[in-house]
Write a structure and sequence with these properties.
Radius of gyration: 15 Å
Strand content: 35-45%
Shape: globular
Strand order of the largest sheet: 1-2-3-4-5-7-6
InterPro entries: Acyl_CoA_acyltransferase, Bact_Acetyltransf, GNAT_dom
Pfam family, one: Acetyltransf_1
CATH architecture: 3-Layer(aba) Sandwich
Keywords: Acyltransferase, Transferase
CATH superfamily: Gcn5-related N-acetyltransferase (GNAT)
Protein name: GNAT family N-acetyltransferase
CATH class: Alpha Beta
GO molecular function, one term: acyltransferase activity, transferring groups other than amino-acyl groups
CATH topology: Aminopeptidase
Number of helices: 4
Amino acid sequence: MSNSIQIRLSEMRDAGALMEIDSRVWDTRTTPAPIQWNSREQYLQKCPPGNQLVAEINGAIGGYVGFDYPTPLSSNRHVLDINIAVHPDFQRQGIGQRLIEAIRAWAAEQGVRKLSLRVLTTNPGAVEFYRNCGFVEQGRLVQEFYLNEKYVDDILMYCML
């Protein structure tokens, strides 16, 4: 399958598929608030073309890794915050790992030295995935969210490039 996967920067034409992935992946187990886009325009304002790497599998968008600087400060331009989502139809096929490898390479080319992310303790599969990809915990926001009638920690993770 690896020969049929193309990793590239997102384009305008990807918006519908990326919105679909968001609707299928992000729920109260994976994010503090469901991600729901009211329109394609709203999505493109928040996630303009080129601020994600997408995994295209035989013409279908199977996942993405989004990235942005954590602050507008020039002193913080060596860090990228990332978020990753893989469509349920493509999970457990190495797509996520390929996306992490791709963002590491792309970010290093841009002069980025550190990738960071946040993950909820209600998503232990994602925590394990990130650890397997070389991310380590750099902090924890204890009982940061109240979801499904219980308090949930928000884990801050990073990897150096």
